[in-house]
């Protein structure tokens, strides 16, 4: 479907903005005739909105999509689902909060604001995940206000930065309120400056239950406006994160596709980094390399500062200095993932810098590898129905396996002791939910039963510090983690989204030795 048809369908579209948009989208309709490179470049030269569209970025966004991989419909459904969910939840106890009963609800979610390194030097802007999830809008400082009334009618309103020739000269185009209505499919849009006035009127008219998470809102003026309005109207603020995270936890088919994509980008990139690793390179070199390879595949950036840890640095779980050189006998542990179209991947691989594991490294690698595949097998079965159960099972099995190779005393044979021995050598959880954020939906308990649509990591590890004098010396200073991203898909099957990323020991050795061979013959 052409973008114009989609835009024309928006109920709230006004005549003037439709005219403006059709001028704007003109190149879209001509695209099939524009075969030469020059003509295609001219297309991108037209007026721009505050974010990429299928017109300005046809290499990233399909004609029927608002942002890569997602249609306008999907965003409208998310808003509608959230509001209906809140209303039906409230109705289970008579629509009553704090002694006040109404079927009207209002939710406010703010965008992220720009953050600065120093003076006027900005950090790379990253949109607030909840705001992006509900709007697809990538502009800073914007505000989304949604309402549902007693007739179950959902309306949404965006407050956007006004058009401003001077500001746009410096920071690039803004969409502005007028074009935001058809672009994001909201009922209304206004200048940011009108937020307090319009909010005040809306609240005094509807007297809704008022849902707003003070802590997760970056924007000071929004927090102040909300406090002022709620106290004027004597309305208490209710937390919206349970409902929002509940939705974000279960990925739609389009989100599953985006998760497959972001995982595949990181998996292929890490494979290449492993193949190119050689002793003498620095951890920083591998960091730059994985960043480069992910961006080459259209990732926006790495999803978090990666851990690239050689040798004993790998026993520091959040090692991010990445400043040491790789020695021939070192293992390299890389924990890296990327963000593609707002969705993140999170992979860890551990491989030998020289292409060959030493005997103690091999023993521990094989153990973590078997442990990880045990845990993946367990998903959805007894002992693996929740992330917490997977964690408990990981600690117990790790304790048991360590006992088999002689790192845990033979006498320790009760369940509790083995669990605590496992936890001693792997002192982090084996899993977290994954999605738009790396540690996604953090308020959803890990004791929740796994179900289709959930994406999470499985990441057992072993870290033996130099100070572990009760462990044979050859094992000290070794850190290993293997981490994959998994999806329970719509058929309830467990899909390893990062399966492309090589981890089987012999294949890993082969991959790393190829690099050696290539260097030797060069
Ligand atoms: Mn992780």
TrEMBL record:
<dbReference type="InterPro" id="IPR007865">
    <property type="entry name" value="Aminopep_P_N"/>
</dbReference>
<keyword id="KW-0645">Protease</keyword>
<dbReference type="InterPro" id="IPR001714">
    <property type="entry name" value="Pept_M24_MAP"/>
</dbReference>
<keyword id="KW-0479">Metal-binding</keyword>
<keyword id="KW-0031">Aminopeptidase</keyword>
<dbReference type="InterPro" id="IPR000994">
    <property type="entry name" value="Pept_M24"/>
</dbReference>
<dbReference type="GO" id="GO:0030145">
    <property type="term" value="F:manganese ion binding"/>
</dbReference>
<dbReference type="Pfam" id="PF05195">
    <property type="entry name" value="AMP_N"/>
</dbReference>
<feature type="domain" description="Aminopeptidase P N-terminal">
    <location>
        <begin position="70"/>
        <end position="220"/>
    </location>
</feature>
<dbReference type="GO" id="GO:0006508">
    <property type="term" value="P:proteolysis"/>
</dbReference>
<keyword id="KW-0378">Hydrolase</keyword>
<comment type="similarity">
    <text>Belongs to the peptidase M24B family.</text>
</comment>
<dbReference type="InterPro" id="IPR029149">
    <property type="entry name" value="Creatin/AminoP/Spt16_N"/>
</dbReference>
<dbReference type="GO" id="GO:0005739">
    <property type="term" value="C:mitochondrion"/>
</dbReference>
<protein>
    <submittedName>
        <fullName>Blast:Probable Xaa-Pro aminopeptidase 3</fullName>
    </submittedName>
</protein>
<keyword id="KW-0464">Manganese</keyword>
<dbReference type="InterPro" id="IPR052433">
    <property type="entry name" value="X-Pro_dipept-like"/>
</dbReference>
<dbReference type="InterPro" id="IPR036005">
    <property type="entry name" value="Creatinase/aminopeptidase-like"/>
</dbReference>
<dbReference type="Pfam" id="PF00557">
    <property type="entry name" value="Peptidase_M24"/>
</dbReference>
<dbReference type="GO" id="GO:0070006">
    <property type="term" value="F:metalloaminopeptidase activity"/>
</dbReference>
């Amino acid at each position: 479907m052409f973008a114009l048809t989609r835009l024309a369908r928006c109920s709230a579209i006004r005549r003037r903005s439709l005219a403006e948009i059709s001028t704007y989208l003109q190149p879209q309709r001509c695209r099939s005739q524009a075969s030469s490179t020059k003509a295609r470049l001219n297309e991108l030269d037209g007026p721009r909105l505050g974010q990429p569209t299928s017109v300005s970025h046809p290499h990233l966004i399909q004609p029927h999509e608002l942002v890569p991989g997602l249609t306008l419909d999907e965003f409208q459904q998310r808003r509608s689902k959230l509001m209906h969910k809140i209303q039906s939840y409230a109705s289970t106890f008579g629509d009553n909060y704090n002694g006040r009963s109404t079927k009207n609800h209002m939710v406010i979610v703010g965008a992220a604001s720009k953050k600065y390194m120093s003076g006027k030097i900005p950090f790379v802007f990253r949109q607030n995940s909840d705001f992006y999830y509900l709007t697809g809008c990538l502009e800073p400082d914007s505000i989304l206000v949604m309402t549902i009334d007693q007739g179950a009618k959902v309306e949404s309103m965006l407050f956007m930065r006004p058009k401003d020739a001077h500001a746009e000269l410096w920071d690039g185009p803004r969409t502005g309120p007028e074009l935001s209505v058809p672009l994001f499919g909201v009922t209304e849009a206004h200048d940011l400056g009108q937020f307090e006035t319009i909010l005040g009127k809306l609240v005094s008219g509807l007297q809704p239950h008022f849902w707003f998470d003070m802590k997760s809102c970056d924007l000071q003026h929004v927090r102040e406006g909300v406090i002022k309005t709620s106290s004027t109207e004597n309305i208490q603020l209710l937390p919206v994160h349970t409902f929002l995270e509940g939705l974000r936890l279960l990925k739609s088919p389009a989100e599953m596709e985006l998760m497959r994509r972001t995982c595949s980008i990181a998996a292929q990139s890490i494979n290449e980094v492993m193949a190119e690793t050689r002793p003498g390179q620095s951890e920083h070199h591998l960091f730059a390399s994985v960043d480069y390879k992910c961006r080459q595949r259209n990732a926006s950036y790495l999803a978090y500062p990666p851990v690239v840890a050689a040798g004993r640095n790998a026993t520091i779980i959040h090692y991010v200095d990445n400043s040491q050189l790789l020695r021939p006998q070192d293992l390299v542990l890389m924990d890296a993932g990327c963000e593609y179209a707002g969705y993140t991947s999170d992979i860890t691989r551990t491989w030998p810098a020289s292409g060959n594991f030493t005997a103690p490294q091999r023993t521990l690698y094989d153990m973590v590898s078997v442990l990880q595949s045990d845990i993946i097998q367990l998903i959805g079965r007894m002992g693996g129905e929740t992330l917490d159960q997977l964690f408990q099972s990981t600690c117990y099995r790790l304790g048991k396996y360590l006992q088999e190779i002689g790192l845990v005393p033979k006498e320790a044979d009760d369940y509790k002791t083995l669990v605590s021995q496992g936890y001693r050598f792997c002192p982090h959880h084996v899993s977290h939910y994954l999605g738009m954020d790396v540690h996604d939906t953090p308020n959803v308990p890990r004791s929740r039963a796994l179900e289709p649509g959930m994406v999470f990591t499985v990441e057992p590890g072993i870290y033996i510090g130099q100070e572990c004098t009760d462990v044979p010396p050859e094992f000290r200073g070794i850190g290993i983690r293997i981490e994959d991203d998994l999806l329970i898909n719509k058929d309830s099957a467990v899909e390893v989204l990062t399966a492309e990323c090589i981890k089987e020991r012999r294949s890993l050795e082969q991959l790393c030795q190829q690099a050696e061979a290539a260097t030797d013959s060069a």
